[in-house]
Each structure stands twice: as structure tokens, then as C-alpha cells.
């Protein structure tokens, strides 16, 4: 099959013409800005604004934690309003906040802008999840999530490459162009999103409250376990680069090689892997698989310090390939569970809770995992591998309990005997012709 006949290739991140493609273009524009900002924020604030690096780190950490408080309220608002218009509005506000970094000249001003930015970012993620569900529908939202994840990796890579021009110039003008470029991508993304048709909210169930998701203990249990496993992102983004630089004989360029390997594999495998997850039961099994695969990667990484340069490079790349597959298993399963275990009328609110839990795990991850993996060493890697394998094993039972709470069809069948949903790879093999 090809993109031309309306069906995307199984490996391709490019969706067919339609609403998902429009959303993908919006995501591409938005994430080009993300790449610009992620690559340039530290140097802009230290080299151009003149803030101490410690102040920048403190401010971004505080802002990130405060920003998480917007996840659930704005997710709830997306359930009661058109998520398309709400996301476009948030991105217009983000454009203004992004541009206002140019006015920052002191730490208090930086902290104010960073907090506003973080609140909008966290809220926008919840609204985006509701919009993806509205655009793709129950049968296609996990595939859509994987597609947008692949597109986002492309966008971030392009943005990071463009940021290199500003960083190389190391001038106020260069940093100004970086900031304005980031703001411009929000405007472009908002314009593309408004090309989508409006999405009227689902009718609310009687007695639905804003904090209902926070009181849903079974959903919280699944989300917490998934969030613990989500800390693996800190391993690749922070710990592995430091490990390469301080604990191995590999050249520093291997940091880029590892990140590029992860990005390329994500672009080409995200959509394909998403096709294996058709419902909550399949997602729980995939999460269990993710725990084991990530554990294997964590056992390979520390062995890279045992060999010479050639062996180290080989093991680092091998571990990254295994890690990326585990990462994609986790991302796909996490997205599916966060959707499938949420009431249809409260997708945004429940997605907000999922984002809140993941954000908290990622907030404590840098300090905890650098201590565990870099200071403790091999024993720390082994301990984290055991944690990931154990959390993956816990997901099927927790999911079964959450399905029993929903009272759905899946809850009334043995967990290991739930049939594949129509259109799944398993179901298609049973249909003649």
C-alpha cells in the first residue's frame, strides 16, 4: 500500500489526507518550535539574558512543578468545550508568552514567564489528548497518537538543527531570532488546528465532577505504575549522555549518535508498533512487554564500560535500539490505557491526571536517577531494571481491576481470553479473503 491510495505504509509516519494529516502538520510546526527552544533555552538565558546557570535550573524546575497544576483543570475544560478551539487559543497565548522571554532581564521576571509557560504547556498537553481522541475516534486514537509522536520527533530534530545556527552565532540577534521563531511556530500551529472541524463535547454523565479522575483509585493505580516506568526518558536524555562522557572510552560524539538512533527508530517504528495495541487488554500486555524490554536495555548500558572503544560503541548502539523498542511499547500502551480506562465524557480530565502523574515522575527523575545510575553504578542499573520489570508485570492485574470498575464487555471475560477487536491484526487473520 502507499500513501497515494489513501492507506499509509505500515512504517510511514505520514497519515493519509484528512483531519489527522492536518493535525500532524500542526504538530510538526509546534514541535519545530519545541526543538528550537529545548536546544537554545539554557544558552539564551545564560549567555543573552545573563542569568546564572543555577538560577535557570531552579527556575525551570519550580515552573515545571507549578505548571503541572493546570493539567486536570484544562483537561476538564476540554471535555466541556470544543478542544480544537481551546487548543488554538492556548497556542495563541503560548506565542505571546514565548515572545515575552525577550523582555526578561531578572530572575523574578524569568520565573514569572517560565511559570506561565509551564502552565500553558501542561494544560495544552491535556487538551491535545482530548483533541486527538475527538479527531481519531475510539478506534483510531492510539494509532493517531503514535503518528503524531513520530511527526514530533521529526519536528524536534529540525528545530534543534535550526537552533544550532543561533547558538553558533552566539549573539543577541541570533537568540532573538530563536525566541521569535519559537513564538511563530505556535501561531502557525494554531492556524492549522483551526482548519479542523469543531468537536462538540460528549454529554457529561450525571454527577460528573471536575476532580472525578483524581478520586478514581483504580485509574490512578494504573497511571502511577505507567508514570514510574516513564522515568526511563530521563535515562536516555540525561543519564546516558553523562555515562558516555564519564564512564566509557567512547568519543563524545556517541551522545549524538545515540540520540539520532533513537529518533530515527522512533520515526519509522512508532506507527507500526501502535498497530499491535487494539484495546486495554492488549495495552496491558504491551506494557508488561515494555517493562522487560526496558529492563534488558538497562542491563546492557552499564556493560558498555567494560570494553574498549569498539565494543563500547557497539553495546551503546545495541542498548539504544533495545531501549527505543521498549520506549515505543511503553508510549503506545500508556496512551491506550489512559484513553481506554477513562469515561468517554471525561477524556480530557483523565488525560490531565495521566499527564500530572507522568510529570511528577519526570520531575524527580533527574536527581534520583543520576544518583542511582551514576553514583551507585552497575548495581543501580540492575535495581532500576528490576523496578521496570516488576512494574510491567503489575499492569495486567491493575488493568483488569480498572476494567471491572467500568463494567464493560472486557470486564466480564477472563483477562487472557478477550478477543481481538475488529480490524486488529489477529481478527483480520480469522476473516476469509
**CATH architecture annotation of the largest domain:** Up-down Bundle
Measure the end-to-end span: 17 Å
Low-pLDDT ranges: 1-10, 408-433
Order of helices and strands: HHHHHHHHHHHHHH
Transmembrane segments: 20-45, 51-74, 110-136, 148-169, 175-194, 250-271, 292-325, 378-398
Protein name: MFS transporter
Subcellular location: Cell membrane
Main location: membrane
What distinguishing features does this structure have?
Growth Hormone, Chain: A, disordered N terminus, 433 residues, 0% strand, mainly alpha, single chain, disordered C terminus, globular
Provide a descriptive summary of the structure in words.
The protein has helices spanning 19-48, 53-67, 71-80, 83-100, 107-169, 172-193, 217-230, 232-247, 254-274, 280-300, 309-340, 347-375, 378-406, 425-429. Helices cover 75% and strands 0% of the residues. The protein has two domains: 19-193, Growth Hormone, Chain: A; 213-418, MFS general substrate transporter like domains (Growth Hormone, Chain: A, Up-down Bundle). Helix 7 packs antiparallel against helix 11 (309-340). The model is unreliable at 1-10 and 408-433 (pLDDT under 50). It contains 14 helices and no strands. The protein is globular and about 60 Å long. With 433 residues, it is mostly helical. It is found in: Cell membrane. This is MFS transporter. It comes from Plantactinospora alkalitolerans. Its main location: membrane. It is a multi-pass membrane protein.
Amino acid at each position: 500500500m502507499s500513501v497515494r491510495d489513501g492507506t499509509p505504509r505500515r512504517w510511514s509516519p505520514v497519515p493519509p489526507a484528512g483531519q489527522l494529516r492536518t493535525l500532524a502538520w500542526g504538530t510538526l510546526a509546534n514541535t519545530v518550535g519545541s526543538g528550537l527552544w529545548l536546544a537554545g533555552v539554557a544558552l539564551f538565558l545564560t549567555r543573552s539574558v545573563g542569568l546564572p546557570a543555577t538560577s535557570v535550573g531552579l527556575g525551570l524546575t519550580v515552573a515545571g512543578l507549578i505548571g503541572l497544576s493546570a493539567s486536570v483543570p484544562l483537561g476538564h475544560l476540554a471535555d466541556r468545550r470544543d478542544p480544537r478551539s481551546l487548543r488554538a487559543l492556548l497556542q495563541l497565548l503560548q506565542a505571546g508568552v514565548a515572545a515575552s522571554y525577550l523582555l526578561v532581564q531578572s530572575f523574578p521576571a524569568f520565573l514569572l514567564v517560565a511559570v506561565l509557560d509551564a502552565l500553558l504547556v501542561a494544560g495544552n498537553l491535556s487538551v491535545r489528548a482530548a483533541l486527538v481522541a475527538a479527531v481519531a475516534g475510539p478506534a483510531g486514537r492510539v494509532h493517531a497518537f503514535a503518528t503524531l509522536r513520530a511527526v514530533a520527533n521529526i519536528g524536534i530534530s529540525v528545530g534543534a538543527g535550526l537552533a544550532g545556527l543561533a547558538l553558533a552565532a552566539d549573539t543577541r540577534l541570533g537568540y532573538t531570532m530563536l525566541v521569535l521563531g519559537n513564538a511563530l511556530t505556535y501561531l502557525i500551529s494554531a492556524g492549522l488546528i483551526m482548519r479542523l472541524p469543531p468537536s462538540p463535547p460528549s454529554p457529561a454523565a450525571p454527577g460528573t465532577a471536575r476532580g472525578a479522575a483524581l478520586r478514581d483509585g483504580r485509574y490512578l493505580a494504573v497511571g502511577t505504575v505507567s508514570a514510574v516506568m516513564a522515568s526511563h526518558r530521563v535515562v536516555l536524555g540525561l543519564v546516558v549522555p553523562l555515562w558516555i562522557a564519564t564512564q566509557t572510552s567512547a568519543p563524545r560524539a556517541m551522545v549524538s549518535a545515540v540520540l539520532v538512533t533513537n529518533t530515527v527508530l522512533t520515526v519509522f517504528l512508532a506507527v507500526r508498533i501502535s498497530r499491535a495495541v487494539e484495546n486495554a487488554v492488549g495495552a496491558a500486555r504491551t506494557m508488561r512487554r515494555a517493562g522487560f524490554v526496558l529492563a534488558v536495555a538497562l542491563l546492557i548500558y552499564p556493560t558498555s564500560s567494560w570494553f574498549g572503544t569498539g565494543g563500547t560503541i557497539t553495546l551503546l548502539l545495541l542498548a539504544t535500539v533495545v531501549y527505543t523498542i521498549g520506549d515505543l511499547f511503553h508510549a503506545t500502551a500508556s496512551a491506550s490505557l489512559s484513553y481506554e480506562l477513562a469515561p468517554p465524557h471525561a477524556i480530557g480530565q483523565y488525560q490531565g491526571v495521566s499527564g500530572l502523574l507522568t510529570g511528577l515522575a519526570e520531575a524527580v527523575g533527574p536527581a534520583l536517577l543520576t544518583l542511582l545510575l551514576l553514583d551507585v553504578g552497575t548495581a543501580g542499573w540492575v535495581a532500576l531494571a528490576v523496578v521496570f520489570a516488576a512494574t510491567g508485570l503489575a499492569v495486567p492485574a491493575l488493568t483488569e481491576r480498572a476494567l471491572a470498575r467500568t463494567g464493560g464487555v472486557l470486564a466480564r471475560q477472563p483477562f487472557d481470553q478477550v478477543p481481538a477487536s475488529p480490524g486488529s491484526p489477529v481478527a483480520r487473520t480469522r476473516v476469509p479473503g
